[in-house]
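Much of what follows relies on a compact textual record of a protein's fold. Here is one such record, which you should read through line by line:
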Amino acid sequence: MRKKVQRTMYKSHYGFKCLPFSRSIDIKELYEHPEFKEVKHRLKFAIQNRLFAVVTGPVGAGKTTALRSIKAEFNDPRYTYIYISQSGITPRVFYNEILKELCLSPIYSKPEARMAVNKAVMKMYSEDQIPVIVVDEAHLLTESMLEEIRFLINFNMDSMSPLSLILVGQPELRETLRLKTMEAISQRVSVRFHMDGLTREGTEDYILTHLKVAGAEHAIFTDSAVNEIFQFTVGIPRKINNLCEKCLLDGFIQEKKLIDEIMVKRVIKNEYE
């Protein structure tokens, strides 16, 4: 509660109309750097053409945010988004999560659950509906679970694709799919993209864009402060958000309206070391 009050107070301190680095910022107002735009274009292609896609990147790089942005832009009732994010998921749970999202009853038997999913997907296909199945945290999937996913996309003797399947995970997923044992599923991936952190210039643009959205009328972070932020966060958006918010709070406490490199270093030392 105290932290929430402080955040509200620092909003007034800087003259913001909203919190610039909050997760609640409108998806339409996000800074879309070149890599973010590229992954969106690739995923849109995969979704529209019912393809199998894999997106990897470090924690906080913006993978899930890109998918949320696409969903917001695709205002089309033909698409049904099924989002699954569970660690240690089993094939039976996987199929029943899909059935639940399609408002169908769960089935205890894995083979029967798989058959029910296939039947539901084919029915949607016949009605020109496109199920978009997103599996987040896919780097945690076991090899047997990845094999099950291969069965899911193997329709009509592998001659058609009635759905779009997107695996989203950390860099380990990319390494797993390079294994010889994963070749059968890796060959079926039509769209791949790996997201990295922003450049120094991109980090500055990201910060400025979010400050502008919040209603900032002047620069709040000095160039040297941005340098420190970039070096510490390596351009990862979620890390940038967290550090910038802590710096703004520190500026409010110190009664400063300009954040310099000394303040950033102090926040890093106090909050992260």
In short: Strands lie at 52-56, 79-84, 130-135, 164-169, 191-194. The radius of gyration is 22 Å.
